[in-house]
Amino acid sequence: MRKLPKYVQAWVDREGRSHHYFRRRGHPRLPLPGMPWSTTFMQAYATAMAEAPVPIGTKRSKPGSVAAVVAAYLDSTLHFAAKAATTQILQRHILQNFRDQYGAHAIALMPPKFIVALLAKRKPAAARNWLNTIRALCRFAKAQDLIKDDPTRDLKLPPNKSAGYHTWTEEEIAQFEAAHPIGTKARLALALGLYTVQRRGDVIRMGRQHVRDGLLHLRQQKTGTTLAIPMRPELQVILDATHGSHLTFLTTGNGQPYQPQQFTEAFRVWRKAAGLPARCVFHGLRKAGCRRLAEAGCSANEIAAWSGHASLTEVARYTKAADQQRLARNALARALGGEQTYTKSVKPKRRLTVSET
After folding, report:
1. Which residues of 127-158 are buried (b: 16+ CB within 10 A; e: fewer)?
2. SS3 of 225, please?
3. Contacts by 94-101 with C-beta closer than 8 Å and gap 24+?
4. How many other C-beta atoms lie within 10 A of the C-beta of residue 95?
5. What is the separation of C-alpha 268 from the centre of its chain, rounded to a whole number of angstroms?
6. Alpha-carbon distance 116 to 114, whole Å?
């Protein structure tokens, strides 16, 4: 796969859409339309490259200002560079916007009520990401003796009532499978997400070199957790039926591994071809795989052994929902006066009369 053009940065929003920006020191930050290397994209890129740089000194950050602290934080090996790549992309985007709006202000004079006011303007998920990012910035500033107290220290957001990414239903999975039969790249992508319950960044790096003794060995990109999970027979069937000579399971038309935003765009196309709504993003397959494990009776610890979740809080939601359904079905069976399992009602066959025999 070709690398992004020089000075181009990319990030993916919660809807799975990729965005690209021209970011060059001394030049204005500009959005770039279309996909990298397309005609529309390269025309906008050429225009951005031709822009005259801002004279040196006109954008110089004042020591102690928000702009200066953001720049120092983004250059910090210990604080910023050590974070996962996906976290870096998210935080960089938030901090660049924060610096553009409030860069001239002294960070030492930033009161908690100012941050609270900014949080109130954002939706719950965005507010949580924003607070986590500004909190990391303030902790860095405190460690550098740039501020005396962390203004985010006592700030808490109300519990997020959102269920997060949509969990694919069995009907949605079946609809995607009907549109993309075994042997297609789209079907392989679905199977890897569903049967390994891993994140996008880990799925696009999986390959034959990771399979040993019937186990899929991987180190999660986001958490650094090392996992060895059994290769599901259903996944092995799809892998065997999918043509490919590369080590990596999923590759582009050029035979190169997908970049994260490139894979997101490809999966969006496959999802639309299957007639599924925008809520059916790739991460929802990870949740659907966890749901299936819970419905099969797996405990939270057993599911976490597959998913790599550091906290059992998220996993417990799946087991709780599965247990509730199981208990409800058992209650119905008892109410019907027997030990029969819950099934869909079937219309009884009509009994023949004597005259019809």
Report:
1. bebbbbbbbbbbbbbeeeebbeebbbeeeeee
2. coil
3. 94/129, 94/130, 94/133, 94/134, 95/70, 95/133, 95/137, 96/29, 96/70, 98/66, 98/70, 98/134, 99/66, 99/67, 99/70, 99/71, 100/29
4. 22
5. 13
6. 5
Which residues have C-beta within 8 Å of that of residue 257, sequence separation ≥ 6?
Answer: 1, 204, 205, 248, 250, 251
Check residue 106 and report its DSSP letter: B
Q: Which region holds residue 67: left if phi is over 0, alpha if psi is between -120 and 50, else beta?
A: alpha
How does DSSP assign 2-43, residue by residue?
Answer: PPPPTTEEEEE-TTS-EEEEE--TTS--EEE-SSTTSHHHHH
pLDDT single digits (tens) 66-92: 999 999 999 888 888 888 777 888 899
Positive or negative CA dihedral for 244, 248, 252, 253? Answer: negative
Which residues of the chain fall below pLDDT 50?
A: 55-58, 340-357
Distance, in Å, from the CA atom of 314 to the CA atom of 196, rounded to the nearest integer, reads 17
What pLDDT digit, counting tens, does each position of 148-160 carry?
A: 999 999 888 887 6
pTM comes to: 0.63
Question: Shortest CA distance to 198 belongs to which of 306, 291, 315?
Answer: 306
Local structure of residue 309 (DSSP, 8 states): -
- pLDDT of the residue at 175: 97
- 3-class DSSP state for residue 249? coil
Cα–Cα distance, 92 to 80 (Å, whole number): 9
Max distance between CA atoms of the chain, in angstroms, equals: 103
**CA–CA gap between residue 296 and residue 201 (Å, rounded):** 27
Alpha carbons 98 and 132: distance in angstroms, whole number: 13
Look at strands 30-32 and 18-22 and give their pairing.
antiparallel
Q: Residue 129: name the closest of 153, 160, 100, 167 by CA.
A: 160
Q: Where are the domains of the chain?
A: 8-143, 170-332
Angular region, 183: left φ>0, alpha ψ -120 to 50, beta rest: left
**Cα gap 286→264, rounded to integer Å:** 14
Q: Tell the CATH superfamily of the 170-332 domain.
A: Intergrase catalytic core (1.10.443.10)
Nearest alpha carbon to residue 128 among 81, 175, 90: 90
